[in-house]
Amino acid sequence: MRFELTHEFLDVLRLKVAEQDVSWIQEHVLELHYADIAEIIDKLNNDEAKFIYFLVEEDVQADILMELDEDIRDRFLSSLSSKEIADQLENLASDDAADILGELSDDKIQEVISHMEDDEAAEDIVDLLNYDEDTAGGLMQKEFFQAEVDWNVTRALVELRKQAEDVEKVYNIFVVSEGNQLLGVLSLKRLLFASANTKIANLYQSKNIISVKTSDSAEEVAKVMEKYDLVSVPVVDYQNKLVGRITLDDVVDYIKEEADKDFQLATGISDPVEPDASIWKISYLRLPWLIIGMMGGILGAKVISGFEDSITRIPALAFFIPLITAMGGNVGVQSSAIVVQSLARGDKDLGKIRPKLIREASVALLNGVLLASLIFGIAYIFENAQLGFVVSISLFTVIFFAAIFGTLIPLLLNKYKIDPALATGPFITTLNDVIGLFIYFSVGLLLYG
Amino acid sequence: MRFELTHEFLDVLRLKVAEQDVSWIQEHVLELHYADIAEIIDKLNNDEAKFIYFLVEEDVQADILMELDEDIRDRFLSSLSSKEIADQLENLASDDAADILGELSDDKIQEVISHMEDDEAAEDIVDLLNYDEDTAGGLMQKEFFQAEVDWNVTRALVELRKQAEDVEKVYNIFVVSEGNQLLGVLSLKRLLFASANTKIANLYQSKNIISVKTSDSAEEVAKVMEKYDLVSVPVVDYQNKLVGRITLDDVVDYIKEEADKDFQLATGISDPVEPDASIWKISYLRLPWLIIGMMGGILGAKVISGFEDSITRIPALAFFIPLITAMGGNVGVQSSAIVVQSLARGDKDLGKIRPKLIREASVALLNGVLLASLIFGIAYIFENAQLGFVVSISLFTVIFFAAIFGTLIPLLLNKYKIDPALATGPFITTLNDVIGLFIYFSVGLLLYG
After folding, report:
1. Nearest C-alpha in A relative to B296
2. Considering the domain A145-256, what is its CATH architecture?
C-alpha cells in the first residue's frame, strides 16, 4: 500500500524527466504523498529536482521543501532567485520559513524579504529570526488558533474561520484576555460540541496550563512537552502575552538530535557533524579525543618504563598489557554508560550515589572473579601458572577499580554541571589504562619478587 | 510558574501525610498537574503513595498511574486487590490498561477482568492483550473518533458526541464505510467549519491516507509516523477494517528507547536493562562483551609473544603498547560511529561505500600525520629518536587501518542484516588492538633490524 522507492523506479523516472513526460510524472509521482515526493527528489540532480518540484501544486511544494534533506534543500534553494525563494516562503509555516531564511546571508535575507507580497507573513518571519534557534522562540511558529475569553461560541467560530487559513495542524485553541495574556486552553473537541451561545469563559480549561517562555531552552521545551504529554505548547513573552506555539513534531527532531549527541560523545566525536562536512572540519572535531587518548598512551608508557627492569627479566609480562588495558576500558565504559543513561533519563536528584556504587561494585566483583578464573585457567593449561596468577589477580583488581571510577566520574561531572556523557568516551578509557597498567606491574613486581 | 520538586517540599509533605493533613495536601498537591503529582508519588513509599493517590479524583488517578515510574507502578499495583486494580483500569485508555494488565500473571489477569463492570472496555482490553507488544497492535488503542462516509455533519456530531466520552485526545476523525473499511481522514478543523447538511463524503480526505497494519512492527510504525509527520495513525486489520489508532506520544517513547539501544551497544551493554535489574542479570548481560574483549587480549598476548626476542633486546618497545592499542581503538570507534549513525538515519540504500571510505581514509591520513609528528617530536625531545620513529610510523599506520576497518565493518554487518551498532562496541576495539600490535611490532622489527 505505502510507496517504496526503488532503483528501478528512479531509473524510469530519470528517463521520463529527460523526455519531459509530464503526464507520466503526473500519474506516478505527483499523486504520491508529499513525503514520498521529497524522498524521490532527494535522489535526483538539481535540474531533475526543479522540473518535478515546479510541477507540484503550490501548497504541496511547501510540504515537500520541508521534508527534503537539508543539503539537498540548500542546493535547491541556492539555485533559485530571491523572488522564487520569496514565493516559496509564503507557503511555509512561519517557523519553517524562518529556519530556511536563517541559513542565508544577511544581504540575501533582505532581498528575499523585499520580494514577499504578504507583509504580515514577512513581519512574522523577521520577528522569528531574532530568536536563538536553540530556544523556544527559535522553535515556535506564529500560526495558531486563539480566542478571547469573553467571546461566545458563535463569535469564536467566525473568528477562528479567519485564522484557519494559516494554521495547518490544529490541536487546541489558546484562550487569551483582551490584552492578549494567555489564560488557558480550549480543546477543539469541547468547542465542537458546545452550543452557540455558550461563553468561551465557561468552556476553557484554566487550571494547570503549561506554557513556555520565548527564552526557555529547546531542551527545557522538550522536557516540558514530554513530561506533560503535550502535542502543542503555547509560548509566552515576559509579560505572559501569547506569541507563538510549538508542536510536538518539531520537538521530536530535537529529542532525536540529543540522543545522537550522547552517542557521539560516547564514541569520541566532540560535536554533531553533518555527514557532508569537510574533511578538515571532521578531522579537527575528532582531534581533541585522539590527543587525550595519546596523552593517556604517553602516561601509560611512563608507567611501564618505571618497570623496565621487570620487563627485561620477565618479557612475558609485556604480553598481557593489551588485555589489562582493554578490560579496564570495557568495564569502565559499561559502568559509566549506565550512570550516564540514568542521569539523562532525569533521576538527577535525591543523591543515589551509594546504591549505584554498591551495585556496580557487586557486578564488577562477580564478573571480575569469573574472568580472572577464566584467564588463570587458560594460563594454567598453557603451563605458565605463575604468570597466570599475576594476570588474573591484576585483572580482577583492574575490573573492580574500573567499575568504581566508571560510576563515580560521570556522577562527579554531573555534580559540577559538566555533561556526564563525556565520561563514557575516550576519557574514561584513558584513565583506566593508566591505573590498570600501574596495578598490573605492581602486582607483577610483588608476586615475582 | 511550573512546579519544581524539592527535598524541602518532600520533607514537609511526608510530615503532612503522617499527620493525615488532607486540607494541606488538597491545596499543595492535588491542585497540581497530574504529571507533577506522579513525580511526587514516585518519591514516596507505598503507604504514602496510596494515601495521596486515593485522595485524587478518579479520572486524574488514571493519568497519574500512567506517568509513574514503571517500578513504582508495579509496586503500587501489587499492593492493590483485584477489584481495586479493575477500578483503576476502567479509567484508563485501552492501550494503557492492556499494558498494565500484561504485566500480571494469567490468573491475576482473569481475576481482574472478572471484576470490571464495563464489559465493552473489558473486551477491548482482552483483545489488545492478544497482540505482541512490539507491533502496531500492541501499541494501538481502541478509543478514537470514527464517522461513516454517508453521514451528514449533523448526524456525525450526534454520533461523535457519544464517542467523545471515551476519547481523550482527538486529532482527527477516521472515516469508514458501512462495513468499517477505512476510507480516509477528516480533520476536526474541517468539521468545525462545515455546514450542518454537508455530507462527510464531501469533506474528508481520501488521497494518500497512511495507515498501519496490526502486524506492522513498532519500528515500522515509528518510521511511518516520522516520515509522514503524523500525530496519530489509524490501524487496520488484514481486511483493511479500522481497529485502532496509535498516537505520537506512545511512539516518542519507542523512538527514545531505540536511541538508547544504540548507545548501549556502543558502550558494550548487550541489552536494555532496567536500572533496578538484579546484579546477576546485569553481570550476565555484560559478560559477552567482556569475554570478547578478553579473547582479544589473549590474541594480543599471542601476537606480542611472537616478538619476545625484540622485547628482550629493546624493552622500551613495550612502553608504547597501550598507546598503539588505545589509538587504534579510538579511531576505529570514531569511524564506525559515524557510519552507524548515518545507517540509523536511513541512508541505507544506493551504495555509498566508496565515498564514505574515501572520506574516513582522508580524515585518518590527516590526523595520522599530525599525531605521528607530535609523538615523534615528543620522543625526539626525550632523546630517543629511533624509538620515536618506530612509534610514529606505526601510529600512523594503525590510525589509517583502524579508520578503514571502522568504516567497513558496520557496512558489512548491515549488508548481512546484523545491527551495525554492534561494531561500535568492544568488537572493533578488540580487532584493532590485535591488528595494531602486529603492525607496531613488525615496524619495530623492521626498523631496529
Report:
1. A323
2. Roll (3.10)
